[in-house]
Amino acid sequence: GNNSLKLKFPSIKYSYEKINNIEGKEYISNVLIFYGVNFIENKNYSNAIIYLTKATLLNPNSFDAWNDLGIAYYLTNQTNLTISTWKKALSIKEDEKIKKNIKILKNKLE
Question: How far is CA 57 from CA 5, 14, 36, in A?
Fold first, then answer.
């Protein structure tokens, strides 16, 4: 459909929906994270959120995808989404910095 993301490489074209094997999904997820982080650096947060969300759907066990998505939410002042997204990241891998950031954000909400 229209919401399928096509990524053009020099010699191959992927439709992420057609990739069913785990390695393929992880690979495309990492490509999406790469673009997502690039969008964040260029302050293009709406595209960052789209790409990083797709990355989490393709590879739900990706710490980086959840962490980076949380950063995009944070930079767009979506505090509740930031917290829930970073908690997903923490469920995959312990990270003291993220724990501290969540604590700070929770205090801001109170």
Answer: 13, 16, 14
DSSP state of 62: -
Q: Structure tokens of 90? A: 């923490």
DSSP code for 10: S
Residues 6+ apart with CB under 8 A from 27: none
Given the structure tokens 């959120």, which residue do they identify?
49
Q: Measured between alpha carbons, how far is residue 103 from residues 21, 58, 93 in Å?
A: 37, 29, 17
Q: How far from chain centre, in Å, is Cα 85? A: 9
Question: Does the pLDDT of residue 108 top 80, yes or no?
Answer: yes
pTM over 0.85: no
Rounded alpha-carbon distances, angstroms, from residue 13 to 8, 19, 96: 5, 11, 39
Question: Which CA distances in Å does 98 have to 44, 87, 102?
Answer: 23, 8, 6
